[in-house]
Specification:
This protein is mostly beta strands and 222 residues long. It is built from no helices and 15 strands.
């Protein structure tokens, strides 16, 4: 069973982030901050130097943003980027970047599938139509002496054909609580790349929540 090919095991701190030290908030226009989902890029030093938002804006982070979860030079990551956008041109001041897990559909369906419940807070297709995004609330807690991590991923159950001929991809959120206590809720963002789907395909995402199973349906647009 090759579960490791599809799962990301996440520690108790589910929403890993980095931030600029000594940033002061305020109400004047110079303290205005934006938050966008983006592909962020690291430079030779391993710090984040640029980003392309889901709206298509290309940004230069000035100064570069140092993140513990993004240390590989010349790499691209998925993130929720907070920044102050009052600089001239495309230069922005990066404030914080939260890691967004990218979950790819495995070639082979695992034998054992866990669907422990989560809170589904929202789901949407990105503006650039490259990702299906999920905002999840995952119950977690700390147990002394335990290094257990939860597992999360995406599986494809079946592909069917609708009456009008378009294909329907039945996806399911895999979630293994792995014995972690459910003391409090942590926010977790995940993105499922939509590359590989054809225009007109339908994606049906099933998520087992504490309120029951929820199925969201999306049509792949050009």
């Amino acid at each position: 069973m090759k579960i490791l090919r599809i799962l990301i095991f996440i520690p108790v701190l589910l929403l890993a982030a980095c931030n600029v030290e000594n940033y002061e908030t305020g109400d004047d226009e110079m303290s205005y901050m934006r938050a966008d989902f983006a592909r962020v890029h690291s430079g030779e030093a391993g710090t984040l130097v640029s980003a392309v938002t889901d709206e298509g804006d290309s940004l230069v982070l000035t100064p570069p943003l140092d993140c513990e979860w993004a240390t590989t030079p010349d790499s691209t990551y998925r993130a929720l980027l907070y920044y102050k956008a009052q600089f001239e041109g495309l230069k922005v001041e990066g404030i914080q970047a939260a890691n967004v897990l990218t979950l790819r559909i495995p070639e082979k369906r695992p034998r054992d599938i866990f669907t422990d419940p989560v809170h589904l807070q929202s789901s949407w297709v990105s503006t650039n139509r490259q990702y299906l995004n999920l905002s999840l609330g995952v119950m977690t807690g700390k147990v002394e002496g335990s290094d257990a991590k939860q597992g999360i991923g995406i599986v494809r159950d079946t592909i069917t054909t609708a009456d009008d001929g378009h294909q329907v991809h039945h996806l399911r959120l895999y979630h293994n609580q792995n014995g972690q206590p459910e003391y409090y809720t942590s926010r977790l963002y995940v993105s499922v790349p939509l590359t590989g789907f054809k225009q007109g395909d339908e994606v049906r995402m099933e998520v087992n929540t504490y309120a029951g199973k929820i199925v969201k349906s999306y049509i792949i647009q050009p």
